[in-house]
Each structure stands twice: as C-alpha cells, then as structure tokens.
Design brief:
The chain has 356 residues and is mainly alpha-helical. It is built from 14 helices and 2 strands, in the order αααααββααααααααα.
C-alpha cells in the first residue's frame, strides 16, 4: 500500500526511499518483527486458553519432551499475521510473484491450521490424513506454479554453469508444485525442537532475499551469469518479512518455548521458501540452502523404507534431530549445531552465484 501511495505522490520527499527495494526490505523486516513482538503475548494467551492441554507430546519420543506438555501450538498464526501485514504495507501488490507466494503461504498455513486443530481437538498425533493434506497442498502449489510460469519460463537452471538450463515444458508445472510441497513438508518435519526450524528458515529466507534481488536486476544477473527474472526483485521484500516475523516468533520459541509454531507455521514457511525458489528459478539451489530440511526429510523416508523392508531401524529415531537426542546430545546442542549447518549450507548456496 505504501509503495502504491508513494508512486501516486511521485515519491515526494521522504517517500523517495520507498522507491528502492532494499529500503523497503529493511522496513518490512523491522515492521514484521515489531508486529510479531506486539501481538505475540496476546496470541499465546489466546492459544493457551483455547487449547487447554496444548500440543500432544509423543510418549515414544525423548523423555525430556514430556515436560513440554501444555505448551500451546499454532504459533504459526502469529508468523503469518505479522508477515502478511508487513508485506501488504511495503510490497508492490501488482506483482504476480507476490500473489503466488502469498497464495502458498496463506494456503499452506490454512492446511496446517486444519491439521493442528484436529490434533488438539482429538488430543492425537494423527490430524488430517496424509493423502488429504498432500492433495490440498498440491492444489495450492499448482495454482502458484501457474501464476509463476505465466510470468517466467519452464526452464530449470543448473548451478555452477552460466545460463545452462533444462527446458521441461508442461512438466515444469509438476516439478514446481513438487518443489513447493516438498519444501513445506521438509520444514514441517524439521520442526521438532525449540527454535530448531525457525532459525534455518530465517537463514534460508535471508539467502533467497539476496538471490531474488540479484535475479531481478538485469545488470547483476548478466554479470553473474544467472537467469534474469523481471519483477522477482520484489521477493527480496517478501523474504525480509519472513525474517522479521521469524525473529519475532523465535523470541517466544526460544527454549523453553512458550509456543510451538505447529504445522500452521512450518508448512506456511516451507511452502513460501519453495515458491520463492520457483519464482527466482533457483529450485536446485534451494536443495543446497535448505539442505538441513532435505536431510531431515530423507531421514524419515530412509527410516520408514528400511523398517518396512527389514524390520530394523537405520536411526535410533527419526527425524534425524531425535536420533542425536537419543545419542545423548542435549536439545540446545542439537539446535545450535543444526543452526551452524544451516549457515554453512547458505554460504555454499550463495557461492553458486559466482562459481560459474
């Protein structure tokens, strides 16, 4: 809204700052952070009153987690609210990429909300059936993929090579939807310890904020040999709102957590990262930057596959962060070491922009 207002007033006086994506990104981050910190306590109180016993805690999980009983979930509502309000203020709402990413964030957040609510209402871990949830996710992701492809292309670009891509044609819609759904569920699987998922999301969002800004600039994208996507620079502001909302949530999610993000937050944030990666044509780089999420998801797939075939487990417990807990690592040690891994992977992802 502020961008359109500044444009209507011809960027007069201080409004000239609104012209620049970098200035709006910084303002959006601080605004999302402030909104999250202000509404956080009220959201948590409301969730605690409405949920009673809070998120169900697995009996077969690490015994230290039993102390978390009564902690409310659905904290993702706070994230999505502060993120959405901030981006409505500072983004160019005429940009189709904005609405594609908003559709995924809100749509996946709603699907996660239904799952969280079902778990709380039934005091069970099952929630909405996996098939139903995946079907809804693919519907939302396909719509977003259509919005993105209508503005970009159906080529997958390969890191480390200048302008090298593989044209997929109509198959790209399926690929893009798979990236978005996969990212959403990978972050969802990572969300198992206080602060574990949110900080890597913030790191990944910051990384893709840089990528979005660069691919949106014809001069920088030409210099780096990366695909130029007109209009994608606006997504740098979207990434900034994720960072601001995520930092606000981390304030309340730091150990011991006052609230869990639940599927409401993890699906929304993961899906948003997937949508941004598709819009910027850096889907493969997302697998590097979000390698921690990929590793978490693979640990579950490997565990289930191997157990069904042999009746034995590869890991003591999946996802992989629980395996390290079972090895005797404290929760804080697992979280901080995984944050370090996320930072290293983000740096490697950024390196792909130059190593071509």
């Amino acid at each position: 809204m502020l961008y359109l207002l500044a444009e209507a007033l011809d960027y007069a006086g201080p409004l000239n700052l609104i012209r620049y994506q970098t200035a709006r990104a910084g303002a959006a981050l601080l605004t999302a952070l402030l909104i999250g910190l202000v509404i956080g306590p009220r959201f948590i109180d409301m969730l605690r009153v409405r949920q009673g016993k809070g998120q169900p805690i697995r009996e077969d999980g690490p015994q230290s987690h039993l102390a978390k009983r009564g902690t409310p979930t659905m904290g993702g509502l706070m994230i999505v609210t502060s993120l959405t309000l901030s981006l409505l203020l500072f983004m160019d709402l005429r940009n189709p990429f904005v609405w594609a990413c908003v559709a995924v964030t809100v749509g996946f957040g709603f699907i996660g909300f239904l799952d969280d609510w079902d778990k709380v209402r039934k005091a069970s871990h099952k929630g909405v059936s996996g098939r139903t949830r995946l079907l809804m996710e693919f519907v939302v992701a396909t719509i977003a993929a259509w919005l993105v492809v209508d503005q970009a292309s159906t080529v997958i670009y390969i890191p480390f090579f200048n302008y090298t891509g593989v044209p997929l044609g109509w198959f790209y819609y399926l690929f893009a939807a798979f990236v978005i759904v996969g990212a959403g569920n990978a972050v969802n699987l990572t969300d198992g310890l206080d602060g574990l998922a949110i900080m890597p999301v913030i790191i990944a969002a910051g990384t893709f904020g840089i990528i979005a800004y660069l691919v949106g600039r014809v001069d920088y994208s030409h210099y780096l040999g990366i695909p130029h996507v007109p209009g994608a620079g606006e997504l740098a502001i979207f990434c900034a709102t994720i960072m601001g909302a995520g930092l606000a949530f981390l304030w309340f999610n730091a150990p011991p957590a006052a609230v869990f993000m639940g599927d409401t937050g993890s699906l929304a944030l993961g899906g948003a990262l997937g949508a941004i990666a598709v819009a910027t044509h850096h889907e493969v780089v997302l697998a590097i930057v979000g390698g921690l999420f990929v590793f978490e998801a693979l640990s579950v797939i490997i565990q289930v596959f191997w157990f069904k075939r042999t009746g034995k487990r590869v890991f003591r417990m999946a996802p992989i962060h629980h395996h390290f807990e079972q090895l005797g690592w404290s929760e804080s040690k697992v979280v901080i070491r995984f944050w370090i891994v996320a930072i290293v992977l983000a740096l490697i992802g950024l390196a792909t922009l130059k190593l071509r």
